[in-house]
Structure prediction request, 929 residues.
Amino acid sequence: MSPSPTARVAGPVVTDRARAPRSPRGSTRRAGRPDGVDAVRIALWLVVAAVVLLPLGAIVWLAASDNHLPLLLGGDIAEAGLNSLVSSVSSAIGAVVVGTALALLLDRTDLRGRRVLRLFALTPLLVPPFVGAIAWIGIAGPTGSANALWTQWFGAPLWNIYGADGVIFLLTVHSYPVAYIIVSAALRRIPSDLEQAARISGASAIRAVLTITVPLLRPAILSAFTLVAVGNLADFGIPSIIGLPERYVTLSTLIYRYIQSGTVESPLEVIATIGVVLLVVAAAAMVIDMLVSRSRWELDASASSGQILPLGVARLPLTLVAWAGVLAITLLPLSALLTQSLLPAPGVPLAWENLTLDNIVRATTAPATVTGAVNSVVLSVLAGIICAVIGLAIGTLVTRTAARSNTALRTVAMLPQAIPGLVIAVGWLIIAPRIGLFNTPWLILCAYVMAFVAIVVQSVSAPLRSTPMTAEEAARISGASRLRALFDISWRMALPAAISGGTLVVLTAVRELTISVLLLAPGAQTLGVSIFSLQQAGAYNAASALSLIITLVGLAGLGLAARRAR
Amino acid sequence: MSSVTLSDVGLTYPDGTVGLSGIDLAIADGEFVALVGPSGSGKTTLLRAIAGFLRPTSGSIHLGDSLVADASTLVAPEKRELGMVFQQHAVWPHWSVERNIAYPLRLAGVPKVERRARVDEVMALVGLEGFEKRNPTTLSGGQRQRVALARAIVGRPRVLLLDEALSALDEPLRDKLRLELQTLTRSIGLTVVHVTHDRDEALALADRVVVLDAGRIQQVGTPPELVSSPVSPSVATFLSDATIFTGRLLADVFSAAGHECRVDAALLEGGGSDGDGSIAVLPEDVTLTPGAGAVVMSSLYGRGGNDVVVDWKGIAVRCRVSGRRPLVGESVDVRIARAMFYPSRLPAAADAHDRAAAGRLQG
Prediction:
């Protein structure tokens, strides 16, 4: 058995060595000719370059064109920056504390009715922040129901929501569900045997939770903190509705003012500089998160979830406190929205003869809102479809093929998730005139795709990562080329995840405010902007009516999506 | 069907780790060859090089007469006309059983009518009649592995590659599939390369077994050859749990160094002249008699004889004892009825080798 020893000698040794480097994981490395998969990879790089890198590059380039840093350090901008920083950090701390406490209480103890309570606790996630702000004004605004009652009983209002404390409170309310989801997912991944080993070693149930489980949650808690803090850094709805009446200005509201009224010279350049600063903060948060996740413990897969911890004597009081708190945070604003929608004007007493459907009728039939609704639906459905396709392609490529550029591609696609929506909007605003999309709704679509494609990439790659690579290898052995295996196996397997990711994009985009308010073009008003304009114009009850509708539709939509996903 | 020929195949990773080195192996048409070895020995690397998922850094691989890999050629896996079954079955969850099995035919452009017939044929062959429309996720582990097997053979591959194909299954089922696998592959005359870490499975199924260690072939032979005359102490240890004594053969007696073990040259196989060397003692060749020379460390019941380990003056000796099962802690004498002698050319190297072998035994 000496088959063609000449072939070996004939092969040029140098090229052999040049080709020798292979990925150490030992996946396929073809002989050198680029194939279909390489073409797909190049195409995807072009897409992310256009959709993600171009707007970011434009911000950096414009900011670098002239030095506006001194401007940032003085007066308005410095104050707004400080306000943004304080409100986002303190609300993130609040959100993480509430989220972690809820995760432990709802997932690991015998709190009464914890299943139902979990659903209630998650609802603020489904209510857009600006809608929450409108609703809370009805409760804790100067003429809100709670303050009215308190004044009646004690002669002075309880708490005025307008101002810094209100902004921080509302940001916390709207971000603790995210912290809860992250921490609770991490909690479920901790194998129950770790705690059981502690129990067998002599630890009490509570001690096992506090000394074993909670320390293992630390990375998840930190990553929830960075995610929430970056998200809150540039929220527009809450500070503009709750903060501005008390002259509490944050970066997002300041930027909005600059764009709307041109109070500074060359506003775009100043805004770009602010955008770069936010970008640096976001990048720093991402790096911290990455460093933390690198030091994350390798946990074995666990079949059984953790044991339920009996609360004992504390069960009844804790149940009461948790239920009261969660219901106050979730049901109160909804009922406030409802009453405001049914009353003709703020301050009118709630009585049967005062109730009217006028607001709801007017809100749903006004031409501006109808345009807004149509625009929002069209833009968000398009964004959902585009994100699903791009996200499916990127998510499968980076998890199911071997290439050095995979990490880079994935990072670029995921980058916008860590970037405040404000910065994304500014980026597109800068390049709009150059790409001929200035003052058109398509600009908003581009920004939506950039902002939300990460949702699909994430939802696609998570289930794929747990599928062994042999799925594609089996297809290769069956005679499929790399591209064919990618189509037939990877894409088909990930299709359900891409569809549910796309649905999530639609539901997020349809209620979006921060991006669309900044990219506002004539005739391109979105639903969020319609509500915001009504609120700004003083039509509180019409704004409430529309908010109520959008919230109920959103709840129904997500409920349907969740049911289908199961 | 076709043969597989590997000549001087080597595979070194970019970080310098040696995956394979100097592999020369000819697998005949229709032969069933098992690759065994400790984990990290390179058996899966070798299989994946044959499959085309890994590119050898030296040497060449032929399937039949066609060259599939050498310094300047690398035929992609899909062009090699192979069938492969993976440890975790890799049945595609988004397609029905029938669609899974038909996939290789679909890619080969087989017309629909013929495709149907051939799928039915292999499904009957692996015992899956009536499962055509089933969703793979509703199948049991054994049924999924049958689907994977059907998919691997439906395209009439030149060679069937099995990568720990039975290892994920539970014992009684694994045994059943092992029997079926032999019947099936023999009835259609498949060339099979089977990677397994289960020594008994390799010996039971294969025409020839290839023992690998550290990326090199240690020995190739039929199962009886490997069991009765392993070529090195390490093969004897790996395949048969042999006990190794190092020492010197002098005047017709082997004396272990620093140990009271003495074996008469008449009992030694492999012969050789006087000099340093080591002996490998198979568990079957040890008998225990009442005495005080050694202490029983463990005593496990087995169908074909009790599996006993005794501590003989610091060396753990593995024995297969039929009849009465000794108790742990009992004192016994050890008698060696037969041993293989391996003269060492370089005493230092041999020493290191045997230490490694002894370590593997304890591990």
